[in-house]
């Protein structure tokens, strides 16, 4: 498949996708993009704004994965900001790019897509599927995923084992790892696409025999 991986980070969701796909990864941070490219040298990495790239290139792909910035939706950040009627740090608006991309993909994209984000502090504007402590908006069903341990409070060494990335002496390792979708979950979701595609092809073959 031709896959668009938006807000790619260091590639947690992509790690177990294998080498048989044509993958374009979009990341706007030069340093993070370099880490991604080192891990996945055959992917095409473009350093640009993912939101705008989606708008201009969505119809060039079979499958799109988008993980827009999650901080402004995060329940964890909200609790740290506002407790017992007291504001502890400056509140921020929810980033509406998340909802823009969901609505856009639902109505314009003909392939399969996933938009991933954190479980938020407010009622979602569009009903998600909740899988393994993530919110997902997709145009296909994602069955429950049994492995849900994310290890966010673990040591950096354990986080690297959980996410499958050795970041060496990279600064800001904890945040980079916490922002990763678990590789097994990324593979699990991509496999739902393959299973669905194979079932459709099987039905087509059966019809040809009639």
Description:
The protein is α/β, with parallel strands linked by helices. Helix content is 37%, strand content 17%. It contains seven helices and nine strands; from the N terminus they run ββαβαβαββαβββααα. It has helices at residues 30-39, 50-57, 75-81, 97-108, 156-163, 173-178, 183-209, and strands spanning 2-6, 22-26, 44-46, 63-66, 82-83, 86-87, 112-118, 129-131, 134-138. A seven-stranded mixed beta sheet has the order 3-2-1-4-7-9-8, sandwiched between helices. Strands 5-6 form a two-stranded antiparallel sheet. Strand 5 (82-83) and strand 6 (86-87) form a beta hairpin. The longest helix is centred in the last third of the chain and has 27 residues, at 183-209.
Q: Which descriptors apply to this entry?
A:
alpha/beta, two-stranded antiparallel ribbon, about 35% helix, about 15% strand, about 210 residues, Rossmann fold, single chain, seven-stranded mixed sheet, 7 helices
Write the layout of secondary structure elements.
Blueprint: E1 2-6, E2 22-26, H1 30-39, E3 44-46, H2 50-57, E4 63-66, H3 75-81, E5 82-83, E6 86-87, H4 97-108, E7 112-118, E8 129-131, E9 134-138, H5 156-163, H6 173-178, H7 183-209
């Amino acid at each position: 498949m031709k896959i668009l991986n938006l807000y790619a980070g260091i590639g947690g969701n992509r790690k177990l996708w294998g080498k048989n796909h044509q993958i374009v990864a979009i990341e706007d941070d030069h340093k993070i993009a370099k880490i991604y490219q080192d891990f996945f040298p055959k992917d095409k990495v473009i350093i640009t704004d993912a939101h705008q790239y989606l708008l201009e290139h969505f119809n060039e792909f079979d499958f799109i994965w988008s993980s827009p910035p999650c901080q402004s939706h995060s329940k964890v950040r909200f609790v740290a900001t506002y407790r017992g009627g007291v504001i502890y740090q400056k509140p921020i608006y929810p980033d509406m790019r998340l909802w823009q991309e969901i609505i856009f993909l639902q109505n314009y994209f003909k392939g399969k897509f996933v938009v991933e984000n954190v479980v938020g502090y407010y009622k979602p504007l569009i009903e998600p599927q909740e899988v393994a402590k993530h919110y997902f908006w997709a145009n296909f069903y994602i069955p429950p995923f049994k492995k849900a341990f994310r290890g966010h409070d673990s040591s950096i060494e354990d986080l690297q084992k959980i996410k499958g990335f050795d970041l060496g002496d990279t600064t800001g390792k904890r945040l980079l790892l916490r922002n990763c979708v678990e590789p097994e979950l990324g593979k699990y979701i991509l496999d739902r696409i393959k299973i669905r595609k194979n079932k459709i092809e099987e039905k087509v073959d059966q019809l040809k025999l009639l």
